[in-house]
Specification:
The chain has 210 residues and is α/β, with parallel strands linked by helices. It has a single domain (27-182), classed as 3-Layer(aba) Sandwich (Rossmann fold), CATH 3.40.50.150. Helix content is 25%, strand content 26%. It is built from 5 helices and 9 strands. The strands form 2 sheets. Strands 5-4-3-6-7-9-8 form a 7-stranded mixed beta sheet. The protein has a two-stranded antiparallel ribbon with strand order 1-2. The chain is globular, with a radius of gyration of 16 Å. The N and C termini lie far apart (36 Å). Keywords: Methyltransferase, Transferase. One of its GO terms (molecular function) is methyltransferase activity. Residues 183-210 are annotated as: Disordered. InterPro entries: RNA_MeTrfase_RsmD, SAM-dependent_MTases_sf.
Length: 210
């Protein structure tokens, strides 16, 4: 069973597509959002959830205070499940787009995205993920945090030049990577590396963490 972990819709259950998606577990989602709240990346954010599946990541963000959330799914069946979940939860500012992740990533938004999730099926190639990230680069805000969930057997995502890895956390066969926009005054920044401590306050990077 998939559910919203916290916020206005906390505890509410979500429908999941019967096939073709790999839902992020509640445990992993809870850890991801604990870190994002520590980064102050959710409240008031404009959120893009690519490869949305059931919409759980984007809907969790909406429940916790994001002001605009776009759920993107190429599968019509999965997009219908997303739409049903949006209607069931009754959260404002959430819409579903049935289209390819790359096409939506490349389209200029009305304002830059503040938080982006990429949780593609594991069979999506590293090259395809890199292409989506490159398409996104011009369309994110200066405060943006990018969250990429991949198989632990996959290479680290190929980040655009203006982004910097700030943390990576392994959960079984899944790795969640976090990146941010590099401040203009910095010519280079060290990668955050693999962060195996569950406490978000133990990661480094550009978010003022110890």
């Amino acid at each position: 069973m998939t559910r919203i972990v916290a916020g206005r819709a906390g505890g509410r259950t979500l429908a999941v597509p019967p096939k073709g998606t790999r839902p992020t577990s509640d445990r992993v989602r809870e850890a991801v959002f604990s870190r994002l709240e520590h980064y102050d990346a959710i409240d008031g954010a404009r959120v893009l959830d690519l490869y949305a599946g059931s919409g759980a990541l984007g809907l969790e963000a909406a429940s916790r205070g994001a002001t605009e959330v776009v759920l993107v799914e190429m599968s019509k069946q999965a997009a219908q499940v997303c739409a049903a979940n949006v209607a069931s939860l009754g959260l404002d500012g959430v819409r579903v787009v049935t289209d390819k992740a790359l096409k939506v990533a490349a389209a200029p938004p009305a304002a830059g995205w503040d938080l982006v999730f990429l949780d593609p099926p594991y069979e999506v190639s590293d090259a395809d993920v890199a292409e989506v990230l490159a398409a996104l680069e011009p369309h994110v805000s200066a405060r943006c945090v990018i969250v990429v969930e991949r198989s632990s057997r996959s290479a680290e995502p190929q980040w655009p030049a203006s982004w910097n890895l700030i943390a990576a956390k392994t959960y079984g066969d899944t790795v969640v990577h976090y990146a941010e926009v590099t401040p203009l005054e910095e010519t280079s920044a060290p990668a955050g590396g693999d962060d195996n401590d569950a406490d978000p306050a133990c990661s480094g990077g550009e978010r003022g963490l110890p």
